[in-house]
Amino acid sequence: MGEPASFTTEIRDGKRVIQLSGAWTLAWLPSPLAELDQQLQALAAEGVSWDLTSMVRLDSAGALLLWRAWGKQWPLAASIPEEHRHVLLRAESVPAATALPLVPAPTAVLGWLEWFGLRVLRAGSHLRDGLSLVGAILLDIFWLFTHPRETPFREFSATLYKSGALALPVTALVGFLIGIVLSYLSSLQLRLFGAETFIVNILGMSIIRELGPVLVAVLVAGRSGSAMTAQIGVMRVTEEIDALATMGVSRTLRLVLPKVMALALAMPLLVVWCSAAGIFGGLLAANIQLDLSWGFFIETLPRSVPLPNLWIGLSKGFVFGLLIGLIACHFGLRIKPNTESLSTKTTSSVVTSITVVILADAVFAIFTRNVGLPL
Amino acid sequence: MSSSPVIDVQGVWTRFGEALVHRDIDLVVHRGEMLGLVGGSGSGKTTLLREVVGLLKPTQGEVRLFGKSVVDASPDVQRDLRRRFGMLFQHGALFSALPVFDNIAFPLRELKRLDENLIRELVWMKLAMVELEPAHGRLMPAELSGGMIKRVALARALALEPELLVLDEPTSGLDPDRSENFVKLIRTLQRELNFTVIMVTHDLDTLAGLANRVAAMADQRIVALGTLQEVMAVDHPFVHRFFGGGRGLRAQAAQERAD
Asked: Which homologous superfamily is A6-92 in?
């Protein structure tokens, strides 16, 4: 067994004979292979005869190597024992590597057109599936009006707890720190103009109206959105969704609806919580940096940030929650049963959620541009 | 080198927390043998198999493959050792992100010494060995039927032409017809490539069709070891339950027919 593959040349009856010996197997073939390959091919081109009788073992790799060296045909003169012949016969039946291309070659000229077309088709299928998901949820809601006992309260409260209550610490921390940074940077600029008191307007406006909702949306998309996509995806892979369907349980009713609704409720609450933490952080920094008194800050806040801003922040939270829940479930349901699809779809779910949230935020900004400004 | 047994399990004890799985197990498998491990659910067959391939370290005792310890050897020795056996997992364990072709090519590419053309032809050869077409190479594992998954997994396990093939429930989830074909396929390949086999199975037909030696596990140890006839003759409650009720006799008759 333990003998590397080798060959010797000898002259028998005036003819050159190549005697192969040792184990011609993957483990015993020399490394790198190219040298042996070239030597064999050169010998084969000279039309020598081959003697395989002292070869200890031949496996498919060795057989293929020989077969390739022989130019994919039986040599004119060779003595091959029966045990090695059948391995070589198997090598003979393999189609040539060039005969069957692995992937169809792309058409170079129209490649970009094909790429673009595929993109458009994919976007179309996303829109169609997304729309049918929304439709299914609406139908479920109408159905629940007549069958209120079927409302999935348990799933709803579980999601509310997981993506709402458990997200409280991290949203508070992030809001608090952003508040401090924003307040510190703004106060440096405001002091140049002697307009320190405007720190209340800047902080209140930006945090309640913009930063709170967007920050929470980014956190929730990364925290709960990804988890929802992965969960639904794994349930698809393990056929749990099919199991639900066979028990007569609608997947949108039991899986998608409670998630979307729980996020739509949890998000506005988290927005209030995060904005409060942000304003507290800003207040603390302003107190230290600008010697602004707590009382003044609290007193000025309602005057410089009119109430509609809070409503804008809350409705943003509601809409962002809906969007994140829908997108997470949409991507989860598109996951194919393999690991690669699971990871790419979870990534796209989070990226799409954040992008769509920011787009929606821009739309909000346009439609509320005259609302809630201090007089 | 050829004198040392392929698998040498010596005094293995395995404990998971409080639960004792193996109590002083000895087992030797020689070159060319096809050993079938049988035992009730939870009797530690699969655990023993995982210890043989080095996925799990026994609490006490030693497992040697080709005369070398599987878990205590240096990384280089371990790597060489792991290339000398192929394992067929119960559910195939194909890499779901890779098409069939790349699944089989994976161990070959890991060697980092074969050129891509040779790899391609080798993969087609392996596919032909398990009676699949080159065109099947483009399919993704999710698109395969249960029988095809087993075949592709077998092709991958045999990619490096190992000296030892480890089978975990090779025919579970296959219908009797497919199961019989798969057993025949493994037998044919074993005759051609001359590898040693250790397998865990619940299926008596598979056992009768493949194994030339049987080890029955119960009460945390091996209670019977020998040919199918010898094992069936052992007086032990598990052996009675497992082979009783005419099942064993049918399997035995099938084995005689096959031989």
From this structure: STAS domain (3.30.750.24)
